[in-house]
Amino acid sequence: TFLSHSLQAKMSRPVQARRLERIDKNIWVEFVKLAATYSKVNLGQGFPDFPAPGFLTEALTRALSGGNHMLHQYTRAFGHPPLVKVLAQFFEKLLGRDLDPMTNVMVAVGAYQALFCCFQALVDEGDEVIIIEPFFDCYEPMVKMAGGTPVFVPLRPNPPKDGKLMSSADWQLDPAELASKFSEQTKAIVLNSPNNPLGKVFSREELGLIAELCVKHDVLCISDEVYEWLVYDGKQHIRIASLQGMWDRTVIIGSAGKTFSATGWKVGWAVGPDRLMQHLRTVHQNSVYHCATIAQEAVAQGFQRELMLYGKPESYFVQLPKELQQKRDWLVQSLDDVGMKPIIPEGTYFLVADISQFKSDVPDVPNSDEPYDYRFTKWMVKNKGLAAIPLSAFYSKAHKNNYTNFIRFCFAKEDATLKAANDILQKWKQEKTS
């Protein structure tokens, strides 16, 4: 018995690392499962259900079946040479500066791993990292895993007075509030423009304000720009690294998944000055080390094509936003028609809608501390077969309860999918009015 007691005593101490405490819950696990179980139409998760462009899949087929058998082996750990080379050429154009493909560009397993490398490489115990709300939900746990402290500052909605629909541009930072978050402990700010979930594209003035504070307080900027090509209504995506004093302190994060509508390929990258990139390479070589060679080869060929067609009407980067803008407008119309007030996004493939008029549809759960948007989204998928994501999932605990009247839809879908969503909404509207 002594032996069994001593074995039990040994097993009772916590096994998980402290840095995993309170970050084990993940909205996607729960809502992806719900959508898979109940949804007829899934506008929840952010991926297109239409095919990747033909030129990209053809490039993959060529790489796979072509004569170069070395494409089935390891390539350079920090990025396949043809890919880092063409990314450097592309970003030279976009940023107006010379880049070294070997030191200024690193390829990662999707933008997600590029972000993880940033936080692990640049954030230390006790460092503060400013996160603008609403934010893509991995920023907060990634900061905490690196030992940092997230500091939140919300975009505040200013509804237009004329009864017009709100735009994502109506959600703004309060300059004084933002400035008050910078302190001696601030190591970095995370910027996501175009922003997921709102679709906000930060203006030159807003970026100028952030840049000024970064320079003044000597703070780094982690700039998540995965939706850089998905900008609408003639708006322009401005890269904060191109503003004065910012190249030296910014890491840009990008994604082939979002750029070429191939999210399952998991090819992403980080671009920045070597003084920052060298530390990302250290994390990368000691975690993932290497990304799929064949996918990198195909993405490189996709970029070579786009470099030749840059700015021309037949460029995929010109065509895709045009198509998505039509889909966006269609969903806006669809939601507005049934009384969900859409916030018109300037970019990304997400759209947030106000669901306050639907409170009477969703039964109250006594003693539940679950926010209304969570209850609404679960009720909608189970009873109507339409999946979306609650907006308060993109907020910190402190601000969550102020934003429970909104849900997020993804409109990067086949027309048939959007039509099916519209049919569900129309039927719902008839049931409400009859």
From TrEMBL:
Needed co-factor(s): pyridoxal 5'-phosphate
Any single biological process term in GO: kynurenine metabolic process
Domain Aminotransferase class I/classII large: 40-421
One Pfam family it belongs to: Aminotran_1_2
Reaction it catalyzes: an S-substituted L-cysteine + H2O = a thiol + pyruvate + NH4(+); L-kynurenine + 2-oxoglutarate = kynurenate + L-glutamate + H2O
Subunit structure: Homodimer.
Family named by the database record: Belongs to the class-I pyridoxal-phosphate-dependent aminotransferase family.
InterPro entries registered for this protein in UniProt: Aminotransferase_I/II_large (IPR004839), Kynurenine-oxoglutarate_AT (IPR051326), PyrdxlP-dep_Trfase (IPR015424), PyrdxlP-dep_Trfase_major (IPR015421), PyrdxlP-dep_Trfase_small (IPR015422)
Metabolic or biological pathway, per its Swiss-Prot or TrEMBL entry: Amino-acid degradation; L-kynurenine degradation; kynurenate from L-kynurenine: step 1/2
Classification via SUPFAM superfamilies: PLP-dependent transferases
Cellular component annotations (GO), alphabetically ordered: mitochondrion
Name of the protein: KAT1 transaminase
PANTHER family on file: FI04487P, KYNURENINE--OXOGLUTARATE TRANSAMINASE 1
Bilayer-crossing regions: none
GO molecular-function terms, A-Z: cysteine-S-conjugate beta-lyase activity; kynurenine-oxoglutarate transaminase activity; pyridoxal phosphate binding
Organism: Rhabdornis inornatus
Record bears the keyword Transferase: yes
CDD domains, A to Z: AAT_like (cd00609)
Record bears the keyword Nucleus: no
Keywords: Aminotransferase, Lyase, Pyridoxal phosphate, Transferase
